[in-house]
Amino acid sequence: MNNNKTQWLRYTLLTLCSLFFVVPFGYAIYTSLLSKADIGKLVSISRLTLSNYSDILLNSDIRIWYMNSIIVTLGILVGNLLINTTAAYSLARLKYPGRGVVFFLIVGMMMVPYQVTIIPIYSMIVKLGWLNSYEGLILPFLFQGFLVFLMRQFFLSIPKELEEAAEVDGVTKIGTFFRIILPLSKGAIGTQIIFSFTGTWNSFVWPVTLVNDSRWYVLTVGLNTLKNRYFEWPNLTMTGVVLLTLPIIIVFLIFQRNLVQSIATTGLKG
Predict the structure, then answer these.
(1) In this predicted model, what pLDDT tens digit does every residue of 59-76 receive, in sequence order?
(2) DSSP secondary structure letters along 126-153
(3) Alpha carbon distances (Å) from 180 to 91, 119, 176
């Protein structure tokens, strides 16, 4: 009986917590479907319309901004998967002089506030002539210290006996990495995809600092200009919010199982 009460209480609390996230997004979807005449009103389903989506797609540069966000996000995501994963594996499994120092520096980088690095990075980007460019938006973020730390901790949880058995069979370090380690790391890689994608897709401070040409705006920066243009029409503003949020929800739904698996296994020793 006590177990049933505890379980019921747990699900009740989880349901209430989920409402804090679901209700605002539901409100955004509802408002995005309202006509200008129905703003602020509770209307029936028959009065909802998709005209706001056609208006914002046809009367703004949101398609260009969407494409810029996709290119920048995918570029950073691919770079993170390649660089962070291989760097983490070298720190977890390979032995070379200075490995501890490198790991210490990476952990130290995680303690430096992101805002502190904006000015030095911006100065370098200006000298390289990468203002209003994909290079300036992508290259500074191909390496993420936190994701390296995350992957390293996961690699440490994989039993070394698997690699030793592969070495006995004549498999090289590179072969072991691709044939054994990566297939066992789907949970951690899925988690890395979620963090990298959401962090890049929602990024605002760096794109708004680097870009001053509307043709190079990413979605977050472009929607901020729409908010200023359509501040009197919240239905159009909420339409932009929905379009911004949907890709994040899709990515999370696809990789949520990997996130749970990674959280459950990272740090466990084989």
Answers:
(1) 888 899 999 999 999 999
(2) HHHT-TTSHHHHHGGGS--HHHHHHHHH
(3) 17, 42, 5
Tokens 């006590």: give the residue: 2
Query: What are the residue boundaries of the structural domains of the chain, listed by start?
Result: 52-265
Q: Report whether 62 contacts 240 (CB < 8 A).
A: yes
At 54, list the tokens: 């056609």
Helix, strand, coil distribution of the chain in percent, nearest 5: 80, 0, 20
What are the tens digits of pLDDT across the range 155-200? Answer: 988 888 888 888 888 888 888 888 888 888 888 898 899 999 999 9
Backbone angles phi, psi at 68, to 5 degrees: -60, -45
Q: Which two tokens stand for residue 195?
A: 């963090």
C-alpha distances (whole Å) from 152 to each of 76, 80, 102 are 19, 14, 13
Give me the amino acid identity at 5.
K
- CATH number for domain 52-265, candidates 1.10.510.10, 1.10.3720.10, 3.10.170.10, 3.30.200.20: 1.10.3720.10
- Residue 169 CA to residue 65 CA, distance in Å, equals 51
